Amino acid sequence: MRKKIVAGNWKMNLSLSDALELSSEVSHYLTKSKPACEVILAPSFTFLSALKSIKEKSCFLLSAQDCSAAASGAFTGEVSAMQIKSSGADYVIIGHSERRKYHHEGNELLLEKIHRALAENLNVIFCCGETIEDRNSGHHFETVQEQLTRVIFKIHESSISKLTIAYEPVWAIGTGVTASDNQAQEMHAFIRLLIQEKFPDHADTMSILYGGSCNEKNAAALFSCPDIDGGLIGGASLKADSFIEIIQAAG
Ligand code: PEP
């Protein structure tokens, strides 16, 4: 049985008091309703330690949104995997399209970051997905295959159980345009097939999340697709009501 996961990527939003309030509301719901899915909150680095104390009384997990490829040292402004782990995080998101686009993060760097995270025993949510140009020209499968081949398939099989994949078509992120259930399921099945070929023992157990304008209205249909194991949620994770409805959709 695969784990269903709903992860909220808060990006560079919320003040500390907003973050505490939102996580307390989610925590209250989780302790009362005990949903079967795993719930992850990904605040800015600066809020991880503050949310750790709420996490300890609740049943959500914490994720950072990125980590440095370096272990430590003179890298002003960077945050290491060790610092993230010691601040109470369980996961780190690596390869989000906003990191790829605005910080020019390529496959080699992403692989280094994943190795760093794994060395600190963090779980990794690896994001992949095509641009609108890739999709319109019919290259979307090729793009995602290349992202997996150059990064995930270079990781030693012994660490694969620490990985979750998030398929996030770039054209759907923050745009209000969601991939149709068919488009998303088709890509998730393709990703699972590639995992089956490379790591046959992990294809059935690896959770593959959908991300890209997933909200309380479309989550249930997306999550009922056979290869969609939950979601990585941006905008709709910033309000307790909509995020809780998405958690309910995951069961
Ligand atoms: C994301 O940033 O990972 C994301 C899926 O954003 P949104 O839900 O806002 O499209």
Note the topology.
Blueprint: E1 5-9, H1 16-33, E2 38-42, H2 48-56, E3 60-64, H3 81-86, E4 91-94, H4 97-102, H5 107-119, E5 123-128, H6 132-136, H7 140-150, E6 163-167, H8 181-198, E7 208-211, H9 219-223, E8 230-233, H10 240-250
Parallel strand pairs: 1-2, 1-8, 2-3, 3-4, 4-5, 5-6, 6-7, 7-8
Helix pairs in contact: 1-2, 7-8
The structure holds phosphoenolpyruvate (PEP).
Phosphoenolpyruvate binds at residues 9, 168, 173-174, 211-214, 232-236.
Structural features, described:
- The structure is a single chain.
- This protein is α/β, with parallel strands linked by helices and 251 residues long.
- It has one domain (5-250): TIM Barrel (Alpha-Beta Barrel).
- The chain is 41% helix and 15% strand.
- The chain is built from ten helices and eight strands.
- Helix 1 (16-33) runs parallel beside helix 2 (48-56) and helix 7 runs parallel beside helix 8 (181-198).
- The two termini are 14 Å apart.
- 44% of the residues are buried.
- The chain binds phosphoenolpyruvate.
- Phosphoenolpyruvate binds at residues 9, 168, 173-174, 211-214, 232-236.
- The site of phosphoenolpyruvate (PEP) has 13 residues, from strand 8.
